[in-house]
């Protein structure tokens, strides 16, 4: 087959224009960690906090992506890589639209997380949700650890598949001891430190976060 001629269309609205309109910059935070480490809970808490302050944010949750965009993928090494590739591309589109994108996915291997870094550059922030295996297994809200221990789930991260600890994350988030509200605040401070959010928030009442 002849090669397809693909020429990306130039953008009309620049990142600087979007930042000026939104009052903040764009970034992608990847919350990575073991199953049941609290990634989705922290992501939703940060989303609620940013919403209460009038900021533009979106959450891409691993399980939610697998019910739609990635519903055709399994958990083989190749499918996991493709799962993360699609998530990185979706995050990039939202990032280009000026959003703060919060991605909650296991992303167990350094190679998985490298896809985000490669596609997003300096505005990619890797956050390790650091909860010990025993704590995650004790939570086990979906009963997946129990099934993995019983041999009913193959390639389950932490039990029958590896999780590679991030070596140089932008933030280590102790989801084992911190409340969702404290996690959200730590993430907000990270965004301020990286120049994504302004130093002070004005004009919006905060939402209560448990």
Automatic annotation (TrEMBL):
<feature type="binding site">
    <location>
        <begin position="33"/>
        <end position="40"/>
    </location>
    <ligand>
        <name>ATP</name>
    </ligand>
</feature>
<keyword id="KW-0547">Nucleotide-binding</keyword>
<dbReference type="GO" id="GO:0004781">
    <property type="term" value="F:sulfate adenylyltransferase (ATP) activity"/>
</dbReference>
<dbReference type="InterPro" id="IPR050512">
    <property type="entry name" value="Sulf_AdTrans/APS_kinase"/>
</dbReference>
<keyword id="KW-0808">Transferase</keyword>
<keyword id="KW-0418">Kinase</keyword>
<dbReference type="GO" id="GO:0019379">
    <property type="term" value="P:sulfate assimilation, phosphoadenylyl sulfate reduction by phosphoadenylyl-sulfate reductase (thioredoxin)"/>
</dbReference>
<dbReference type="GO" id="GO:0005737">
    <property type="term" value="C:cytoplasm"/>
</dbReference>
<dbReference type="GO" id="GO:0070814">
    <property type="term" value="P:hydrogen sulfide biosynthetic process"/>
</dbReference>
<keyword id="KW-0597">Phosphoprotein</keyword>
<protein>
    <recommendedName>
        <fullName>Adenylyl-sulfate kinase</fullName>
        <ecNumber>2.7.1.25</ecNumber>
    </recommendedName>
</protein>
<keyword id="KW-0067">ATP-binding</keyword>
<dbReference type="GO" id="GO:0005524">
    <property type="term" value="F:ATP binding"/>
</dbReference>
<feature type="domain" description="APS kinase">
    <location>
        <begin position="27"/>
        <end position="174"/>
    </location>
</feature>
<comment type="function">
    <text>Catalyzes the synthesis of activated sulfate.</text>
</comment>
<dbReference type="InterPro" id="IPR002891">
    <property type="entry name" value="APS"/>
</dbReference>
<comment type="pathway">
    <text>Sulfur metabolism; hydrogen sulfide biosynthesis; sulfite from sulfate: step 2/3.</text>
</comment>
<dbReference type="Pfam" id="PF01583">
    <property type="entry name" value="APS_kinase"/>
</dbReference>
<dbReference type="GO" id="GO:0010134">
    <property type="term" value="P:sulfate assimilation via adenylyl sulfate reduction"/>
</dbReference>
<comment type="similarity">
    <text>Belongs to the APS kinase family.</text>
</comment>
<dbReference type="GO" id="GO:0004020">
    <property type="term" value="F:adenylylsulfate kinase activity"/>
</dbReference>
<dbReference type="InterPro" id="IPR027417">
    <property type="entry name" value="P-loop_NTPase"/>
</dbReference>
<dbReference type="InterPro" id="IPR059117">
    <property type="entry name" value="APS_kinase_dom"/>
</dbReference>
């Amino acid at each position: 087959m002849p090669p397809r001629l693909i020429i990306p269309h130039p953008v009309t609205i620049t990142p600087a224009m979007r930042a000026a309109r939104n009052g903040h910059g764009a970034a992608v935070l990847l919350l990575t960690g073991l199953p049941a480490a609290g990634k989705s809970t922290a992501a939703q808490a940060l989303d609620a906090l940013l919403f209460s302050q009038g900021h533009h944010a979106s959450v891409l949750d691993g399980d939610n992506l697998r019910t739609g965009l990635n519903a055709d993928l399994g958990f083989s090494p190749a499918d996991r890589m493709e799962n993360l590739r699609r998530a990185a591309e979706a995050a990039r589109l939202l990032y280009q639209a000026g959003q703060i994108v919060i991605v909650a996915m296991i992303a167990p291997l350094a190679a998985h997380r490298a896809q985000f870094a490669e596609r997003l550059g300096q505005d990619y922030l890797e956050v390790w949700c650091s909860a010990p295996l025993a704590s995650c297994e004790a939570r086990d809200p979906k009963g997946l650890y129990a099934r993995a221990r019983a041999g009913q789930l193959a390639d389950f991260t932490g039990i029958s598949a590896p999780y590679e600890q991030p070596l140089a994350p932008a933030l280590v988030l102790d989801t084992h001891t911190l409340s969702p509200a404290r996690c959200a605040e730590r993430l907000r401070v990270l965004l301020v430190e990286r120049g994504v959010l302004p130093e002070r928030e004005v004009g919006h009442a905060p939402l209560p976060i448990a």
